[in-house]
Design a protein that fits this description.
Elements (H helix, E strand, L loop, with lengths): L30 H6 L2 H12 L11 E6 L4 E2 L5 E3 L9 H14 L3 E6 L5 H4 L8 H17 L4 E8 L4 H11 L6 E4 L18 H6 L5 H10 L13 H11 L15 H20 L9 H14 L5 H11 L7 H10 L16 H6 L2 H11 L15 H8 L3 H14 L10 H6 L6 E2 L9 E5 L13 E11 L2 H9 L11 E4 L4 H4 L5 H9 L7 E4 L11 E6 L16 E7 L5 E7 L8 H7 L14 H12 L11 H17 L1
Helix pairs in contact: 3-10, 5-6, 6-12, 9-11, 11-13, 11-15, 15-16, 19-21
Enzyme class: lyase
Keywords: Lyase
EC number: 4.2.1.9
Length: 656
């Protein structure tokens, strides 16, 4: 292959222009504008017409459409350059629809993009070390972009997936003095025949264990995404974040989980642009919407749908960005004790419907209606529509949209919508339990998290309690753990084991997501008989007896750092009371010693260390978020605490 000739002659040198005529017409300036506007505001008008905008319209109200768009598409949708994932592949169509609506009302639309990574693509790779830290970085860049358009009236934020959408919510909340509206980017459809995007991520481990053929793995890996755009088909972090955005009142009604690329989806962008304009006309801003009641409703609806545990990191971060009190583990526990899960959606059961069915069954408005009937929803909370939840629900229950969507679900899939969003009393009768439990114990004195509703029912005792007693298998990297699960190292993981994965919290590697492990345990034939305990976090699609967010993390001195292979671990999770414990009950080498004696005498695991490949900027994120409250505080930057800590450190060093 020959090298390109960088300095060869141009084919048509006369086509290289050195000057151009510039835009025609003139700016509609006034004495008041010239005397009082800043030079930046005036130069902005020059830039706008320089890009081809009609100078006669240049003084219209400015709106920023901020999205997570990724990739470059041809007009027919085929790729010029790929995006990282389907979640940001089609959102440019939403940007276009919103811009057209703004222009229809003589406004001036601006568009900016802060793309986002794919947690699915980075599972088991070094890219996962950047996943959670990216959220804070993106939120800061988004806020800077918002502030860098000084004359904007409002922001239409369009985002879909695991980190881009929480970042967008944090950015809009942090600039809440504007008419900000969020547009969830929707979901991809499941394939007509094949596995969903959660299950397909386990083809490697199932093939390695001889539970599927090469041909089956090749086929399933090709067809899992039924359509090219939207978030995954399960109620993971992406879909849960869409639900939470609507529950917060940040979206137009019935926005979360719409099928990407379809007319009902693009209409949301046009409606959202109009909603922002109406907010301006009413003199309303997002600050009027984001209240303590809004945070409460988000936690309530999160529990009702059985959402991702990652929102325990994101909801407090959104609250912090809005200047509200951050909910803690006790607040989440209290709400989960109030409301049983009554939505049947992947990855939870009993059936596990794809997210588009949840949308067609009524989505967030239908769930909110049930919660109002239970007396739990704070229905006087305001939404960006200018209406309260009470007013929206009253309209929803008799609306054409509700009837049409529910009828379509029955016609297209043969599914009764009341089997997707189940009446709460009926859900309780069927044994559906609350979503999230927060076990404590001598291995997690600061707490931990398990999605107790998704433990395999066959390993739950008759009293609705999961009990597990087994030997520890300790790993300090996810690579080693997944190799043992695949049977590539000896001894391989087997039924009865308790995997203890340490050093994977913020300080160790940026708090990676361990979906490689949790998905393998779900889909391997013996996986339901294995438990996992870790200071890492989980994907929203994770299921099983998987306990994460263990605090303190191993590298912060947590007792989990002192577990050794063969130690006897005991786990008990009450899915009704949402109480639980995770204890080391017997040491492998000293059965007669108490746990307290073991923790006092043992050093940390010899393999425990900061990930060698952890990026420097992720290390900085880990240090800063620890000062801001750590994982139980949402992994946010508490500027006052960081400044105080730096000042104290400087004084101490000067004293030395």
């Amino acid at each position: 292959m020959s090298e390109p000739n960088y300095f060869g002659a141009l084919e048509n040198v006369s086509a290289v222009q050195t000057k151009a005529a510039g835009p025609t017409g003139k700016l509609p300036l006034s004495d008041e504008i010239l005397r009082n506007w800043s030079s930046g505001d005036l130069f902005g008008l020059t830039q706008s017409v320089g890009m081809g905008f009609d100078p006669r319209r240049v003084l219209g109200d400015q709106y920023l459409i901020l999205s997570t768009q990724g990739g470059v598409r041809n007009p027919d949708g085929s790729p010029v350059a790929l995006g990282y994932h389907t979640g940001h592949w089609e959102v440019g169509l939403l940007v276009q629809a919103a811009a057209e609506q703004i222009c229809k009302n003589e406004g001036v639309p601006f568009a900016a993009f802060v793309s986002d990574p794919c947690d699915g693509r980075t599972q088991g790779t070094q890219g996962m070390f950047d996943s959670l830290p990216y959220r804070n970085d993106a939120a800061m860049v988004m806020r800077r972009l918002i502030r860098s358009l000084p004359r904007r009236k409002g922001v239409i934020g369009i985002a879909t997936c695991d980190k881009g959408l929480p970042a967008m919510m944090m950015a809009l909340a942090g600039c809440s003095g504007l008419a900000n509206v969020l547009v969830p980017g929707g979901v991809t459809l499941p394939p007509a025949v094949g596995e969903d995007a959660g299950k397909v991520q386990t083809i490697g481990v199932r093939y390695s264990r001889g539970e599927m053929s090469l041909e089956e793995a090749s086929l399933e890996g090709c067809r899992a995404c039924g359509t090219p755009g939207g978030g995954c088909q399960f109620l993971g972090t992406a879909a849960t974040s869409q639900v939470v955005a609507e529950a917060l009142g940040m979206t137009v009604p019935h926005a979360a989980l719409a099928p990407s690329g379809q007319p009902i989806w693009t209409k949301l962008a046009r409606d959202s642009a109009e909603a922002s304009r109406q907010m301006v006309l009413r003199g309303q801003t997002l600050r009027d919407v984001l209240t303590d009641d809004a945070i409460y409703n988000a936690m309530l609806i999160h529990a009702a749908v059985g959402g991702s545990t990652n929102l325990l990191l994101h909801i407090p971060a959104i609250a912090a960005a809005a200047g509200l009190k951050r909910p803690d583990a006790a607040a989440f526990r209290k709400i989960n004790q109030l409301v049983p899960r009554f939505v049947d959606c992947l990855p939870n059961g009993p059936v596990g419907h794809p997210t588009v069915r949840l949308f067609l069954a009524g989505g967030v408005p239908e769930v909110a209606w049930h919660l109002r009937e239970l007396g739990l929803l704070r229905a006087n909370a305001l939404t960006i529509t200018g209406q309260t939840w009470n007013e929206l629900i009253d309209q929803w229950i008799t609306s054409d949209r509700r009837q049409i969507c529910r009828d379509r679900l029955a016609q297209a899939d043969g599914v009764d919508p009341d089997e997707v969003i189940i009446a709460p009393a009926e859900a309780t009768r069927r044994g559906m339990t609350s979503t999230v439990c927060f076990p404590s114990g001598n291995l997690c004195p600061e707490g931990s998290v398990i999605k107790s509703t998704s433990i395999d029912p066959s390993v739950i005792d008759e009293d609705n309690i999961y009990r597990k007693r087994g030997p520890a298998r300790v790993f300090t990297t996810e690579r080693d753990a997944i190799a043992a699960i695949k049977g590539q190292t000896e001894p391989a993981i087997q039924a009865g084991d308790v995997i203890v994965l340490i050093g994977r919290g913020p300080l160790g590697c940026g708090m990676e997501e361990t979906y490689q492990i949790t998905s393998a345990l779900k889909y391997l034939s013996f996986g339901k008989d294995v438990a996992l305990i870790t200071d890492a976090r989980f994907s929203g699609v994770s299921t099983g007896a998987c306990i994460g967010h263990v605090g303190p993390e191993a590298l912060a001195g947590g007792p989990i750092a002192k577990v050794r292979d063969g130690d006897l671990i005991e786990i008990e999770i009450d899915r009704v009371s949402l109480s639980g414990r995770v204890d080391l009950v017997q040491a492998a080498e000293a059965p007669e010693s108490s746990a307290e004696e073991i923790f006092a005498s043992r050093p940390p695991h010899p393999g425990l260390c900061v990930e060698a490949n952890m990026p420097e900027d992720t290390r900085l994120w880990a240090a800063l978020q620890q000062v801001g409250g750590g994982t139980w505080g949402g992994c946010v930057y508490d500027v006052d605490e960081i400044v105080a800590t730096l000042q104290a450190g400087l004084k101490a060093r000067q004293g030395q």
